[in-house]
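Quick bug: Dynamin-2A output formatted oddly.
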Amino acid sequence: MEAMEELSELAESMRQAASLLADDDPSDAAAPRRPTTFLNAVALGNVSSGKSAVLNSLIGHPVLPTGENGATRAPIVVDLQRDPGLSSKSIVLQIDSKSQQVSASALRHSLQDRLSKGTSGGSGRGRADEIYLKLRTSTAPSLKLIDLPGIDQRAVDDSMINEYAGHNDAILLVVIPAMQAADVASSRALRLAKDIDSDGTRTVGVISKVDQADGDAKVIACVQALLSNKGPKNLPEIDWVALIGQSVAIASAQSAGSENSLETAWRAEAESLKNILTGAPQNKLGRIALVDTIAKQIRKRMKVRVPNLLSGLQGKSQMVQDELARLGESMVQSPEGTRAVALELCREFEDKFLAHITSGEGSGWKIVASFEGKFPDRIKQLPLDRHFDLNNVKRVQSLSIYCLGSRWLSTIFDISRERVEILNKVSTGNGKGAITTMC
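Here's what came back:
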């Protein structure tokens, strides 16, 4: 579980790095968050294959409906947050900013009602029918579990599967009942996983309901072959884990207020599997093995993605360094360099100002319009002949028009004065402050 927490922290760091590469501010709470899919686990399998029971095992509580009456008819997303401060019996449901402690049975019955009322007879519409839960518990790793309807249902098409499983970092949990292990090569869930994840770096095979195959030598031999990577040659090379059915529900029913009931159930599950699958690797048996295998696959995906992120961040850093150099970072180490930067910035400002005037860009057209239209007309309307000698008035008027108007003249004068002040500061050693003031 500790390894999964470390991966959760690393996934968040990688999300922040991706945000930086996209020019987002990861520290801005108001900015849209780019969700990471490293910690997503999508269950694929037929109806009654045991998908929901497998996810319940990861959650540590029988939250998801199972069996025929609880068949998943719409995507269920369970966003888990591990809280070690809670007891192993506690489940906290989070809705927006509010938290409410609930029981597993209450959640399960609520989901059953929503599934039966909301999607009966209808076709699956992906996220339009999605049921979302955000839970805090001490028994689960920080994963986002996605329980899809059985892929052999008519309502489920490839578009729904790709919508959830097509993300190139989500872990695919292909759930195969032990009784169907002999026919695993024809499994549609496995074929879909191979189409989505051709190299098998994010796929985990889960053999469920092994306890139901106890005593069937042929089935047990097939299961042990898969766990030992000795299955059919045409199968993708993926890791397999074996589980018994309804282990969480059994542990919950048998617990009598003990805080260690779930840990006891995990150990009992592993021992039971060892007795059934005597020839299988012991590190591939039980819920603990499943969590470790998922963590290993997440680590693989991160190793694939980290070099690309580092390369992108290095490129971004080089762009920043080039921009700083262009603005004179290396030049301001000496008075001469500071003076050169100040002059360059003055030239850029003057060029931009003249471009606005000559092209009318921005508000430059207003200055031109005032000079060519309103200003001369208003000068002529002034009753200056009543108060001054007419010849002197004509001289002032001509001079004012020639200088583009008193306001423009004042602006040019201010620019020139500021430029002189900047150069004076540069020459006296205050160049950096001058540049900051001018910018």
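Actually, after a second look the formatting is fine. Residues 30-34, 120-124, 431-439 have pLDDT under 50 and may be disordered. Closing.
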